[in-house]
Give the backbone structure.
Amino acid sequence: MKYFFIIPIILLIVQLRSSYADWENTCLINNPPETLCFGLGPETILALGDDIFVGGQFGHIYSRSYDNGDNWVKPDEIKGMEKLFFNGKYIFALWVNYPKFPEYDSFYSQDTGKTWQIFTIDGNSIKSMACDSNTAYAYTDSGIYFSEDYGQSWEHSAFVVPGSNFELQYSNQNLLFASPFTFSKDKGMTWESISIPNEIALDIAFSDDYVFVSTGYKLFRTDYSLGKFELVLSYNDSIRAVESYNNNLIVITADKEIHYSHNQGLNWQIISGGIDPLDFESFDRYLSFQNFISNDKYMFLGLGSNIYRYNLKLLSNVQDFQVAEIQIFPNPSDEILYISGNSNSNSDKFCIYDILGNKVLEDVFIGRNSINISHLSSGMYFLSIDSENYKFIKK
């Protein structure tokens, strides 16, 4: 049986999109034109306090800002790099164009990028890395290595890795993640797939507490037990990318919108102002997206050939914003009705009324975002959700 929920929305406190500020293109602040066009690839932005590092590819210059992007400096020695990592002690740079050492392409720095040393493991160049506190993992032609002393010494872990497109992505709580959508609990010796029933994973991101997986039109999260996946966002246009840093989460959609969450997917706000539409078009070429970072002052986003920043002070005034809209799906439904956008607070009560105004169901959202309506008779109903922050009726 199908139950139709027709959805006009009355919102008392809702932030449809940010009116506080736009993204600011740091390449246009105090820099002459020749400092532009970094030629960004994935994983080419790094923040260490107010120092921002950007690695350009395709022969473009590696650049550094000492003042949160107000000014950019191009070091003379290194001419380009595609990946940057920091493990709490060293900066690692991969796929580097360093004319002084043309036969090598991976380096590390002990002095926040002022000088660089050759970085190899058993004579192998590094293809990809993942760092977590003092532990680091490296993928080479000889397999996977790991270090538990910030990369000073390395131990071989595994010879065989799954798939020709294998790339290390992230490590957290003794878990090692790699593309395409696999994880290891034993330092890379064995691997399992990340899967969501009836969904195909397309992109992945990580925070301190959660793993986020995009499946095209939906975004799910799970804790590091990788057990139950919880739906946190459903969007009517495709989700192109998801990325998390310092527990800030952004989603970029095909209609050139940037959705931001400060509480790991519970609430969302649209903050797309200031982005050059051409940079969104450049972004469409990338299959993976890992150019989002934040420090205690700004969020930084690399799109196209530009580095944008968003002042966190301007967001601090709206940290308790509500989502742009509450979404109910599927509609019509025959069993489970999913809610995307409610705060999932223990105090959030919902009621369902029939067309005569009779209350047929009353309950609270306690750690869930769905309502079982299988016991209702076929027909049209009204869903009402009333919380401290907003009141609306979905009809």
